[in-house]
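Quick one: structure for this chain?
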Amino acid sequence: MECTSTNKVMIQPTQDSFFTIFVNFLKLGCMAFGGPIAHLAYFRQAFIVDKKWLTEQQYADLIALCQFLPGPASSQAGMALGYYRGGFLGSIVAWAGFTLPSSLLLLAAAYGFTQYSDDLPHGVIHGLKLAALAVVVQAFWGMAKQLCFDRIRQSIMVGSALILLWISEAWAQFAVIFFAGIIGFIFFKSDAPAVDTTAPQPFAKSKGAFLCALFIGLLFLLPWLATTSAAAQVADIFYRTGSFVFGGGHVVLPLLETEAVGYAQMTEDVFLAGYGLTQAVPGPLFTFSTFLGAFMSPDGQTSWSLAILATIALFLPGFLLVIGFLPFWEHLKRHTHIRSALSGINAAVVGLLLAALYDPIWTSSIKDVKDVGFALVAWLLLSQWKCPPWLLVALSASLYPLIA
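Got it. Here's what it folds into:
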């Protein structure tokens, strides 16, 4: 790290090698089952608790930013973490490492689709869900102690969770965070957290503004180019979809169904089968685009090039926005009023984690007393015996089928 002033620490892009960043995220990409909230929990354990890349407060602030922006929040958090460790290229290799395992699996599934059985190994998948439950419980517990330490913050946390459990639409998540920020602005002016002057600072605002302008420019340019080729049309479909997704990966499904079904080979049956396969692989749900893109060649052939194009196009809006907004976010959150609002937002983020802990993670994982016992043992191994998350995932996948 290179200091440029008494209060500003500039990022050192070579602090971690790009290969190291890639490998760290590749490991998580191979085991990150459980959806975006679970992914954020895996990131917290690996990069905040174990490696201490950021503080708990900085990580919560980053999650708040990702929740405000369209795109896959967990992948955007990973991109930003990669940026903080390796600059612009670090964010790209972080995304590539986290995304590659599930993209390759879904691309292979697309090529061998006609030979796939409808029956997935339920015992293995269920064991992975229980491992994800333990990881999320651990993340919730740690973040609640750190960020919800008084009755007002705890009230925001519980109230946010109840609202999100009652209203499942994506807009509710944005509304909860917005009003939690207002509550924080009103109640936490006197005790807003102090600025952490050791926090890494991103690039100049002019570069951030360029990335945001590029996001808008592509949003208008790609529909115009869509008439020129099949590749441009695929890029337009997935880029537009990625630009209007709030609330996590699952929200992308109805948008993609509207845009993709009926194009080339993409039938409703293929779409639903691909969605089922996406639930069985680790990593971000947005890699569903890899599977869909492979079937969108007008010549009727499975296309790996369109699969790659669709994947990049769906993730690109979120990438441009989160990296583009970082310099503005780092500046804004240093103001007293903004930090006060962030105190409320951080409590709401913990409430978001609590709501997701119940639905969909608990509801899809806990079927009987046996599952409760398995999840408790998994949590004990993770929290008290310091079992690495990757080992916990491997043990859960291999041992649960034996008792299923």
